[in-house]
Design goal:
heterodimer, A: alpha/beta, four-stranded parallel beta sheet, 6 helices, 42% helix, B: mainly alpha, two-stranded antiparallel sheet, 9 helices
Chain lengths: 154, 216
Amino acid sequence: MSTPSVGPSVGIVVVSHSRALGNAAAELACEVIGDVDVPIAVAAGLDETTPGTDAAAIATAIATSDRGAGVVVLMDLGSAVLSAELALDLLDDVGADPATRGRTVLCPGPLVEGLVVAAATASTGADRHRVSADAAAALGPKRSHLGLSWEPTT
Amino acid sequence: MGGLSVGQTVGSAELGRWLRAFADAVTENADELTKLDSAIGDADHGSNMRRGMTAVVGKLDATPDAAPAALLKTVGMTLVSTVGGASGPLYGTLFLRMGTSAGDRTELDAAGFAAALRAGLEGVLARGKAQLGDKTMVDALTPALDALDGALADGSGLGDALRAAAAAADKGSDDTIPLLARKGRASYLGERSVGHRDPGATSTALLVNAAAETLG
C-alpha cells in the first residue's frame, strides 16, 4: 500500500561565526528529528578555527538544501545577517535553482533554540513559512518557564 | 599631470595598482585598525581586512589579464569569503557593484570610475542599512564621492578629484570620533562609542587615499 507523497522537506541552513558552534547546534537539531530526512547544512566560520561568515559558502548551503520546498536560514549575530542577505544575491553564481531565492526565508529566531524548533517543525512536513514562524517564536517556552510574558517587552 | 591627459582612464592595470596599494595600507595599519576596533568593536577589523586584502593580492597575481568587471567581481567575492566580519559583505558588495557598473568596458573614464564607486556606495547603503552619521564606513565614503563628483563637475582631472576625495574621506573619518554608533557591534556600547574613531571609516579612508596615490 502506498501513501501519497508528502513532498520534500524544507531545508535548514545554520549560519554562525563559529564552525564548532554551527556543527554543535546542528547536532542538537538532528536529535529532535530522529530518522526524518530534513536537509540541514552548516555554513559557519571561515575554517575550523577562524571565526567569520562567508556569503558564498552560505549561498552554496542554501542551494544544496533546497529540494523544492525552500529553505529557512537561522543566523547568529552581526555579519551573519549581512552575509546571509548577500548570499541571496550570489545564488546564481553558485548554480542554484532560479526559484530558490524566492523560497528562502531568513528567520529572525535565535540560533540554537530557533534551529531546534525549525528542525522539529520541518520534520512534520510543515511549509517554510510555518517552520520560520515557529523558529522565530522559539524563545516562548523559555520565557514562559521563567515567568515572563511571551512577547518580549522593550 | 593635466593637459592632454590620455592617462586618465582606469583599466585593469590601474585597478590592480589601486588594490595593491590598499592592501599595503591595510597591512601597514592593521594593528591601528584593530586597536580602534578593540575600543568599540570586537578587535578584528585590522586582521580581518589584512587577511582579505592579502587574498585579493593573491587573486590579482593569479589572474593578471582579467577585464575590469571580472577583476572587480573577483575582488568582491574574495573579500566576501575571506574577511569574516561585517566588512566582508560590505566591502564585498562595494566591489561587486563596481564590477556590475563597469559592464563590458575595458577602460573607465573619470566619470565612469566615479559612477562605479557611487554604485558601490549605494550597494553598501542597501546592504548595511546605515545612514550618514551612524559612525560607519559610509561616513568616509559618502563625503569622498561627493567631493569626487564635485571636483569632476568643476573640470578637475581624475587625479586632482581623487585627492579632493581622499581629503574628504580623511575628514569624514575624523568626524566619526564624536558620533554615537548606530550600527554593528559598536552600537551595543551606546554612549561609550562616543570619542572613538570608527575603524570602518578609517579603512575606507585608506581605500580612497590609495586611489588618489595610484590613479592620479
